[in-house]
Amino acid sequence: MIMNALYLENGQIQLRTDYPEPQPGPGEALIAVTLAGVCSTDLELVKGYLPFTGVLGHEFVGEVTAVGPPENVGQASLLDRANRDVCATDVESVAGTPLAHVDSPENVGQASLLDHANRDVCATDVESVAGTPLAHVDFPQTDSDWLGRRVVGTINLGCGRCPVCLAAGAEHCPQRTVLGIAGKDGVFAQYVTLPVTNLLPVPDDVTDEQAVFTEPLAAALRIREQVAVRPTARTAVVGPGRLGLLIGQVLALGGGQVTMLGRSAASLALPARLGLTTGLTTDFADNSFDFVVEATGNAAGLAQSLRLVRPQGTLVLKSTFAGEASLNLTKLVVAEINVIGSRCGPFAPALRLLARREVDVLASVDGRYPLHQAPAALDHAARPGIRKILIECRDRG
Ligand SMILES: [Zn+2]
Ligand SMILES: [Zn+2]
């Protein structure tokens, strides 16, 4: 079986119409991709941010159409076993007790699931960590229960066995592959495979158009896992683009005042419409903010972000871009700036925010293309001022 896929090789993208359809291995699901989102990381990969060859794309929603044979050893069977255990608190979690511990960083990722499974904790812990997004969503108990389910999926595939995986999860496994980014074909294709342990069911009240934002919204939420953002902190997001706009909304939850900073008035129109404070980056004096998130994707934005953060303030780096940036290290040292790199985040809270309509994602959609026009979709996404471009992968043409 062959399929359409957007393939990257030596910095050249090409729509392939003869790409082999992936086969799900043990513990994996085959997913028919419904919608995929173009992210700045995809554009940077084309520029050579990482030496990736394969099918691009990591933001998606899809439907499970097949599952591979059961896995005999390793993480999937451990999870499976853990998921089959039933305990009293199962009932409570189904009834709707908010699972507060799902947000804790130590609980994120499949390796910590294993850790929990190995410690013989009850299934509720495992399910909640795996990310039952809402109380009324049935979380599949066996691989075959995933068939026909609408899903999103986390993008890091760890070995599940190394000390890093066991302590903190797949995100930093030295042997990991990353969907559409490193060593693993991505989602700008009709089909993709992922381990079922990476999947989360999408609640019925979250549309495909919203669900495709789960991954970048989780990345925005990652900041709140890493740092306590006080609601009274003077907070700025530099770069009101596709990711910056999600970050601004996430940081504003709970009453925070967030200023979205951009280089042009036009770029600030949508953030203002969504109720965020806005301003031109260059209008603000040095050291104006306690907490600054850099989301511009360019070196100039990074320099501005460092300029704006006050002594002993916090600077979060959220951009991935090809090339190197020079930075005034003197301010970092003399002003004792806390610098935090920030990457992938938790999916379950992202799905909850989408279900509760607490973050507006649809307003940032600037275009939709069928899969066979994926090269044009990437061109559109690369234009200045464009936020989210979606690719309709159900296109069987
Ligand atoms: Zn992305
Ligand atoms: Zn590992």
Can you describe this structure?
This protein has 397 residues and is α/β, with parallel strands linked by helices. The chain folds into three domains: 191 residues, Alpha-Beta Complex (Quinone Oxidoreductase, Chain A, domain 1), CATH 3.90.180; 56 residues, no CATH class; 122 residues, Rossmann fold (3-Layer(aba) Sandwich), CATH 3.40.50. The chain is built from 14 helices and 19 strands. The strands form four sheets. Strands 3, 5, 6, 10, 11, 18 and 19 form a seven-stranded mixed sheet that branches. Strands 14-13-12-15-16-17 form a six-stranded parallel sheet, with helices on both faces. A three-stranded antiparallel sheet has the order 2-1-4, with no helix packed on it. α14 links the parallel β18 and β19. α2 packs across α4 and α4 packs antiparallel against α5. The longest helix has 13 residues. About 15% of the residues have low confidence. Bound molecules: zinc ion (2 copies). The site of one zinc ion has 7 residues, from α6.
